[in-house]
Amino acid sequence: MSPDALIAHFVGASALILVAAHAAGWAARKLRQPYIVGQLTAGIALGPSLLGSMAPDAYDMLFPQEIGTALTGFAQFSLVVFLFAVGYELDLKLLGDRARTAVGVAAASFVVPMAVGSGGALLFWDQLHGLGMPRAPSPSMVLFAGIALSVTAVPVLTAIVRENGLARTVPGVVAVSAAGLLDVVCWTVLAGALLENGGDQALGWGWRVALAAGFVAVMLLAARPLLRRLLWRTHLEPSLRMALLIGFALGSAWVTHSLGLHVIFGALLAGVVTPREPDDRLDPDLLRPLHDVSSLLLPFFFVVSGQAVVLNGMGVTGWIAVLVVTALATVTKIGSGTVAARLGGLGRYDAHTVGILMSARGLTELIALNAGLQAGLLSDRLYSVLVFMALATTLFTQPLLILVRRMAQRRPPGGTQDRADLPLPPTGRDDTRGAPVTDLG
Predict the structure, then answer these.
(1) CB–CB of 185/233 below 8 Å?
(2) What is the pLDDT of residue 425?
(3) Longest pairwise C-alpha distance within the chain
(4) What is the 8-class DSSP label of residue 66?
(5) Digit-coded pLDDT (tens) for 34-49
(6) What's residue 203's pLDDT?
(7) Which residues lie below 8 Å from residue 378, measured CB to CB, with a gap of 6+?
(8) CA-CA distance, 282 to 304, in Å (whole number)?
(9) Residues facing 423 on adjacent strands
C-alpha cells in the first residue's frame, strides 16, 4: 500500500471510529449508562468478530492491517493523556473524618476479590487452559487473575456518584476515597506482576525493580520540585504549560515502558507528581483540555481493545466462564464493600450503596486487561471473557443503585435514620474531585 493510500485509509477509519464511538456513547448515556459502555460496544462491533464476520470485505477495506500500528499509537497516546489527568486529580485528602471507613472498604474490596480471583484461577486452571492459557500457570498469571477482579474504576465511579446526587453524601465520599486508595494498590500490584513476568526484557527482574524504584524516587524528589518552580514562578501560558506537561507524561511513559512496564504507569506517575496550584486547587486551564483531548481520542483505545475480542471463538466454555467470572466479580466486590462499610459505621442502605459503587470497573479494568494481554498474561479468549465481565459489572451499577434507593424509600414512616445516612455538612468544595470529569472510565 502506498503512503498516500495508507494515510487515506487511516483518515477514513478515524472518521468512522470517532463518529461511531461517540454516537454509541451518547446513546448509552440516554439509557442512563456510562459513556464507556456505548464506546466499548462500538469498538467490539467494529472489530473482526462482528463487522469482520458480517462484512469481511468492508472490514478489510476500513481496517487494513497496515494501519494497525497507527491506531495502536493513537490508542496509547490517548491512554497517556487520560491517565495523566487521573493521576493529577488523585487526592487522598478526601478521606477526612471517614478515613478509617474508607481504608477498611478499600482493603476489603482488594483482599477478598484478590483472594477469590487468584484462588479460583488455581482451582480451575484446567478450564482456563481450555480458554487458551498455558498448561502450567506462572505466578504473574495467578496474580493477574486476582487483579482482574479487584479493580474499581475511579472515573466512572465519580461520574455515577455525581449523576445520582451522591457527591455530598457519606456513601459517595467514602466510595470515591476508597476507590482512590484501591487504585493505588491495584496499579502497584499490577506493576509488580508485569515486572515479574519480564517479557523479552534483557535486564533481569531485580535490576528492573531497582531501576523502577530509582525512577519513582527521582520523579518524587527531583521532578516535582522542578515542576513546581516551572509552573508557579514562570507563569507560562496555559497552552505552553499543557504541551510541556503532556510531553513530560509521554517521556515518563516511555521510561516505564522501557523498564518492562506498561506506558500507563509512567503516565499515572507523571500526573501524581505534577503539583497543584499554590492553594491546593486543580488548575482548570490544564484539566479541561486534558479531558477534552482524552475523551476525543479514547475511542481509538476502545476499537483496539474491541478488535482483540474473539466472539467467534468463545464457545460454550467461554460463555459459561463469562457468567461465572461476572458473578464472582459482582458478589465479591459488593459483598466485601458492603460489609466493610457497615463495620465502619454506615447505615444499611448507605453500606449497600458503597458496595455497589465499588463494583464499577469501566475503563480502568480495560486498561489493566489490555496491559495483561500485551504482557502475555492473558489469552485472547480469556481476555474476551474479562472484557464482557467489565461491561456487565459496569452495566449493573446504575440499576442496582436504583434498587437500593427504592428500598431505602420504603422504610417505615417515622423509622430512625442512622447518623451515617445523613448527608455531609457543606465544606465549600466538591469532595469527589475538585474539577469536572467525564464519565469515560
Answers:
(1) no
(2) 40
(3) 76
(4) G
(5) 777 788 788 878 877 7
(6) 57
(7) 133, 144, 369, 372, 386
(8) 31
(9) 169
Measured distance CA(119)–CA(291) in Å, rounded: 38
Q: What DSSP character marks residue 423?
A: B
Helix (H) or strand (E) holding 59: helix 56-62
d(CA 137, CA 150): 19
Angle between helices 362-374 and 35-45 (to 10 degrees): 40
Percentages (nearest 5) of helix, strand, coil residues in the chain: 75, 0, 25
Instruction: Please count the residues of the chain.
Output: 441
96/117 Cα distance (integer angstroms)? 31
pLDDT at 338 > cutoff 90: yes
User: What DSSP string describes 124-172?
Assistant: THHHHHTTT--SS--HHHHHHHHHHHH---HHHHHHHHHHTT-TTBHHH
Across the range 277-306, mean pLDDT stands at 79
8 A C-beta contact, residue 168 and residue 423: yes
Measured distance CA(197)–CA(125) in Å, rounded = 18
Residue 436 predicted with pLDDT over 70: no
User: What H or E segment, with its residue span, contains residue 380?
Assistant: helix 380-409
Cell digits for 34?
A: 456510562
First to last CA, the chain: 36
pTM of full prediction above 0.85 = no
Give the confidence band of 438 by pLDDT, cuts at 50, 70, 90.
very low
Q: Band of the pLDDT at 91, cuts 50, 70, 90?
A: low
pLDDT band at 110 (very low <50, low <70, confident <90, very high): very high
Residue 283 has pLDDT above 60, yes or no: yes
Give me the residue label for grid cell 476508597: 178
Contact criterion met (CB below 8 Å) for 160 and 398: yes
CA-based radius of gyration for the chain = 22
Do 377 and 141 contact (CB within 8 A), yes or no? yes
